Amino acid sequence: MRLDRFICKSTELSRAQAAVIIHAGRVAVNGEPLCDERAQVHESNRITLDDQVLQPRPFRYIMLHKPAGMICSNVDEYYASVFRLLSVEHPDELHIVGRLDVDTTGLVLLTDDGRWSFAITNPKSDCSKVYRVTLRDPISTASQTEVLQQRLIQGIKLQGEALPTRPALLTVLSEYQVLLTLSEGKFHQVKRMVAALGNRVRQLHRVQIGRLKLDIAEGEWRHLSEEEALRSADTNRIEAVRTL
Ligand code: URA
Q1: Ligand 1: distance of its center to the CA of 146 in Å?
Q2: Boundaries of CATH 3.30.2350.10 in the chain?
Q3: DSSP code per residue over 112-167
Q4: CATH number corresponding to 3-53
Q5: Of the candidates 177, 186, 216, 203, the residue with the CA atom closest to the CA atom of residue 86
Q6: First and final CA of the chain: distance in angstroms?
Q7: pLDDT in tens, 133-188
Q8: d(CA 102, ligand 1 centre) in Å
């Protein structure tokens, strides 16, 4: 990460204050003063401020149950940001791992660990996201289910996208409600896929990411243990499920 970011993550200094002490030659990396705040440093480097070794704060992993009417953004826009629900120190260091639309509810993850969020959001990781979808039109027959499942497994060509969607799984809960399991997160993906299948989403709720299930009430949040954080980045491959 950048040197100034490392300083912010291991002290109470702001980015601007970090730049000032770096320019003043008070920061050394592996014993050598480093005066460029943009220089890249690694956690394994020995970084000192006035000869005191700096330790970055441990990474944070957070689960939040997003209500409808709030946005997945670090700042308020027309709607209030989900960050308003959080009471944590240094909220500016956190980012959202896979946003939900303003009208979508359910599981949102937040972190300051870029590698973890990449492992969850990169489609190549095959980390599954499970959505409970309430539909406008019912799925009434087994053959209708079979056709939809086949189309979801083959992939759906969405308007404006070069590639079809990756294989997705359908589980019918009732006539009007299904679980949809995806391993990618294109813009409005569930709504666009359902529309491409000739139906409409009435309500959308994310229940699970990887093997981590939402287990808190709407509007609440909690820290995840390291074991839970690993569970949420678990690949839980759709391909593997499909061939069972
Ligand atoms: N797909 C959507 O269409 N919306 C969301 O909020 C999440 C997935």
Answers
A1: 23
A2: 61-242
A3: S-HHHHHHHH-GGG---EEEEEEESS----HHHHHHHHHHHHH----TT-SSPPPP
A4: 3.10.290.10
A5: 216
A6: 41
A7: 999 999 989 999 999 999 999 999 999 999 999 999 999 999 999 999 999 999 99
A8: 9
The residues assigned a catalytic role are: 101
In this structure, which residue's CA is closest to atom 7 in ligand 1?
100
CATH superfamily of 61-242: Pseudouridine synthase (3.30.2350.10)
d(CA 232, CA 83): 20
Residue 21 CA to ligand 1 center (angstroms) comes to 43
Q: Which protein residues are within 6 Å of ligand 1, measured from CB?
A: 100-101, 104, 188-191, 204
Domain with CATH 3.10.290.10 in the chain: 3-53
pTM equals 0.88
- Distance in angstroms (rounded) separating the CA atoms of residues 145 and 37: 56
Closest Cα partner for 113 from 56, 66, 29?
56
Ligand 1 pocket mutation, candidates 188, 193, 197, criterion most atoms within 8 A of CB: 188
Nearest to 12 by CA among 40, 44, 38, 49: 49
What Cα–Cα distance (Å) separates residue 243 from each residue in 165, 170, 208, 226, 239? 18, 14, 21, 30, 6
Q: Which atom of ligand 1 lies at the shortest distance from residue 185's CA?
A: 8
